[in-house]
Amino acid sequence: MRRQQGFTLIEVMIVVVIIAILAAIAIPSYTAYLDRAACEDGKSLIMQAAANADRRRAQNAGSYVGFNALPQNTSEFSIAVGNITATAYTLTATATGRLAAGTLTLTAANVRGGSLAEQCNW
User: Fold this and answer.
1) How many Cβ atoms sit within 10 Å of the Cβ of residue 78?
2) CA-CA distance, 103 to 105, in Å (whole number)?
3) Cβ of 34: how many Cβ atoms within 10 Å?
4) What domains can be seen in the chain, in order of their start residue?
5) Which PROSITE patterns does the record match to this protein (predicted)?
6) Confidence class of residue 1 from pLDDT cuts 50, 70 and 90?
7) 91-103: per-residue pLDDT in tens?
8) Which of 15, 21, 86, 110 could crosslink 63 through cysteines, CB 3.0-4.6 Å?
9) Which helix (H) or strand (E) holds 82?
């Protein structure tokens, strides 16, 4: 009697179904992980800029005037500052990567907002 070599069609189909089930679970989880990582990148960038603004205020007799020390843009977000007065500023991190077409904002009064605020738990 000859020995069986290889796999039957049923065995191959079972393996394919198992791989498909694992992929159906793993891919959405991985996508959510990448989105969370991108959000954290934007939040980190904007908090670095806020720390630089507070440093400027401490060195400039309590005024934000002349503040322009922004951290370097990342692959996910670019940062800009606007509405600078002696007592206020507005930081805006604009998504340029995975979360394109969204923003996170922060003011000197620690008011957080932007179109990505809810998605990023900002």
Assistant:
1) 17
2) 7
3) 14
4) 9-113 (3.30.700.10)
5) PROKAR_NTER_METHYL (PS00409)
6) low
7) 999 999 888 789 9
8) 86
9) strand 77-82
